[in-house]
Amino acid sequence: MLIAEASRVLACLCAGEILAGSGILPFPGPVIGLVFLYGNPALIGEVPKPLGRIADNVLGVLGMLFVPTGVGLLAYLDLLREELVPIVTAIFGGTLITIIVTALAAKSLVVLDAEKRRSAEQEAPDAAV
Amino acid sequence: MPQFDVTLWHNIALLPAIGAGATVGAYVLALRLHRWSGGHAILNPTLVAIVIVALAVKFSGLDYATYAQSASVVTFALSPAVVLLAVPLFRQRQLVRASARMIAAALTVGLPTGVVSAIGIAWLLNGNRVTLLSLAPKSTTAGIAIGISEKIGGLPALTAVLVIMTGITGAVFGALAMRQLGVRDSRAVGLAMGIASHGIGTSRALQIGEVAGAFAGLGMGLNGILTAILLPIAATFWAP
Fold it and tell me: What are phi and psi of B122, to 5 degrees?
């Protein structure tokens, strides 16, 4: 049932927000909710179809949910104008540097793992002898 | 004909139907434009929708606070959306478990790079202290970044805007940059998008595929948690 799965998601979120808001756990409420949903007995084996449908639909428009916050730019135009060069350069440069460095770090492990697998495959026949 | 009543208009505009309706409508328009252009990266739907709504708010004589209040239901939906990231993560759980070392490497490198590169560049260009502190949590998702900014002495509302700018930069240029560098592994692409540009990067990664999307969501979540714990501690060493 669609509404039952929706309520499961909201229950996980509620529990997360309560644990975060009361200071019991030092993590953001929605992230705690994510862990609860992941560990939910409903997810053992397969994701229930209605839950999968909700997730695909909501995550399909994830970008929309940031629009109101982004429009907040209007409220900060003056401050942004004052610090335009450092802010824009830091955002643009910093984000690109972070993406590139992170991707290369992750990729180096892909390469490393592939090499290890290859050498393990090469060694295996010798070991058999 | 009745006279145009400014207070009445202001009160109507506070209704969620107006703010949320305008946001969803603008996003649908932005999606159409994105598809019509053949998926051009610069026509990122989030960016285009922000421009449309910002223009609408400006020319309708309203202020941002009115719009933010009437669109708050859209912003709220971000919280259950983060919870729902458990679903792609669960579907890809075997691959995630097998990639633990890659995830750890990406975070160890990506988290400090995200914070230090932004602060460093702004500092070199004489950005003031509040700007630097507001920039520090920019790679984490909006809700988390605002909390961190508050804690370390930044301007939370400015941080929110910087977070969106970061997400859009990553979503628009990230995939292109990685293609140029020959990074094709979906896991690496997703992790970099999620760690550097949070939910908007994750939204872009979900377009690339479910593996990239799941790893982006994971990168975003772990980066958010760790930054929320580590940045306030690091900030205590940087007294004014």
Answer: -65, -35
